[in-house]
Design a protein that fits this description.
This protein is an alpha+beta fold. The chain has two domains: 46-196 and 256-349, Bira Bifunctional Protein, Domain 2 (BirA Bifunctional Protein, domain 2, 2-Layer Sandwich); 359-453, Anticodon-binding domain (Rossmann fold, 3-Layer(aba) Sandwich), CATH 3.40.50. The protein contains 15 helices and 18 strands. It has an eight-stranded mixed beta sheet. Strands 15-14-16-17-18 form a five-stranded mixed beta sheet, sandwiched between helices. A three-stranded antiparallel beta sheet has the order 4-6-5. Helix 1 (46-62) runs antiparallel to helix 5 (166-183) and helix 5 packs parallel to helix 9 (257-273). The longest helix has 18 residues, at 166-183. It binds histidyl-adenosine monophosphate. Histidyl-adenosine monophosphate (HAM) binds next to strand 8, strand 12, strand 13 and helix 11.
């Protein structure tokens, strides 16, 4: 069978046969590895993710977004019709396969299409409009893995469905900006308008004419883009195309009156809010469903230079109709969690520090361990920050752990204490020990902790 290129070379282990009397046989056991571009999010990184998702959840609540979850698997057609057949995401990166019923399904490369599908499937147009939704979950794109780019990655997104007013575009940019502010990450917002299908068509013709005039100077991909998807010309990063790209006609000059008014209004809201933004006339986004406002959020280095895109979004007023639904103007954005969590780690590494505990419970011997478990439960139920390591047997090792966890007191239960119905309290700062009644341990310690805090 042909080996999948996706699977990394497995680690190999050699073992000997354990059969009695048998010749030792060397066996090879391969340990499965995570797929290329897919990564485990280990406990050490969880504090940064938790910080991020807690902040996002709180902001969603402040701005009245309700949580929605949609399946990871969808009909492939959903993304082909919405994100666009000729986009990199659908053409080159989407995981598509036939399931056991022969249906062509895809691992979602993004969630906006799924949210619109859910909006239409559940008749959400009957709810008071607009409907504000937020979500979080894994997305899949078969991209070339590199730093900050994975094949399974997480997004967190906000969508406003059923509103054409520019105030919704501005509100989303405000939410994105506030999220990063609260996370302590410096960002810059880049903004553009790609108009409506009518005025964009005029612009596309103009753009193609510009490229036709310089055809010999641009890369092969751009030559194809001129015919298949002219707006993608603006995405080209090839060195040889930059001079031609620099001279392109400005899309904002081609906006029709309603599109220009809409965009001006978004900018006025941002100015009123004191939200800085940069106009970027080559920002078109890599998904076909957008119209009018498009934006991206970049992290900013200490030198003030914009770095990688942390998130992006825009308006998609025609997506619901493309999917066979009624006209539903809408807009939204999504951020990448890996990229954002990595930034949080960079600017706030202290988040990984473990929270100090109040009490550690140490035990010596089987009977004492049973009593210690009961004691632990009493403290936990009383809301005291308590820890244990019931697998350890030696007192010294347990005291070391208590010290590492920053325990204020260690409670020690040994055989003698079990017999006497007592427990030893050790003050971890002074080393002073005293004996108290087992049944009064929780109340006594709560008092001590209260007095210490006062
Ligand atoms: P997108 O720009 O394709 O937009 O993705 C949003 C964010 O997801 C990116 O800015 C980036 O941080 C993250 N991201 C994308 N691909 C990867 C990857 N391979 N590895 C790691 N992170 C990645 C959308 O997906 C739209 N659905 C956003 C939207 C919502 N538009 C309207 N509503």
């Amino acid at each position: 069978m042909k080996k999948s290129k996706l699977i990394k070379k497995p680690k190999v282990k050699e073992v000997k046969s354990e059969k009695a009397g048998a010749e030792p046989v060397k066996k090879v056991i391969a340990t499965p590895q995570a797929l290329r571009g897919m990564k485990d999010i280990l406990p050490a990184d969880q504090p940064f993710w938790l910080f991020l998702t807690d902040k996002a959840r709180a902001l969603a609540k402040s701005y009245s977004f309700e949580k929605i979850e949609t399946p990871v698997l969808e009909e492939a057609g959903l993304f082909i019709r919405s994100v666009g057949k000729e986009t990199d995401i659908v053409e080159k990166e989407m995981y598509v396969f036939e399931d056991l019923d022969g249906a062509k399904i895809a691992l979602r490369p993004e969630a906006t299409a799924s949210i619109v599908r859910a909006y239409l499937n559940h008749g959400m147009w009957n709810l008071p409009q607009p409907v504000r939704l937020w979500y979080q979950g894994p997305m899949f794109r078969h991209e070339r893995p590199q730093s900050g780019r994975y094949r399974q990655f997480f997004q967190l997104g906000f969508e406003i469905l059923g509103d054409a007013n520019p105030v919704s575009d501005a509100l989303l940019i405000l939410v994105a900006s506030n999220l990063y502010k609260e996370l302590g990450i410096n960002t810059s917002i880049q903004l553009n308008s790609i108009g409506c299908p009518t005025c964009r068509e005029v612009y596309k013709n103009e753009l193609v004419n510009h490229y036709k005039a310089h055809r010999s100077k641009v890369c092969e991909s751009c030559k194809k883009r001129m015919q298949r998807n002219p707006l993608r010309l603006l995405d080209c990063k090839e060195e040889q195309c930059q001079a031609v790209k620099k001279e392109i006609p400005q899309i904002l000059d081609f906006l029709c009156d309603p599109c220009r008014k809409h965009f001006m209004s978004v900018l006025e809201y941002l100015e009123e809010l004191g939200l800085p933004y940069f106009l970027n006339n080559t920002l078109v986004r890599g998904l076909d469903y957008y119209n009018r406002t498009v934006f991206e959020i970049y992290s900013v280095g200490n030198d003030g230079a914009a770095q990688s895109a942390l998130g992006g979004g825009g308006r998609y007023d025609y997506l619901a109709e493309t999917l066979g639904g009624r006209t539903t103007p809408a807009c939204g954005f999504a951020i990448g969690l890996e990229r954002t969590a990595n930034k949080i780690k960079e600017v706030n590494p202290a988040l990984a520090e473990k929270e100090k505990i109040d009490i550690f419970i140490a035990q010596l011997g089987d009977l004492a361990r049973r009593k210690a478990m009961v004691l632990f439960e009493s403290f936990r139920r009383a809301g005291v920050k308590v820890a244990e390591d019931f697998c350890r047997t030696g007192l010294r090792a347990q005291l070391e752990i208590a010290d590492k966890l920053g325990a204020r007191y260690t409670l020690i239960v040994g055989q003698k204490e079990v017999q006497d119905g007592t427990v030893i309290i050790r003050d971890m700062e002074s080393g002073v020990q005293e004996i108290i009644d087992f049944n009064k341990a929780v109340a006594d310690l709560q008092k001590k902790l209260f007095l210490n805090a006062a």
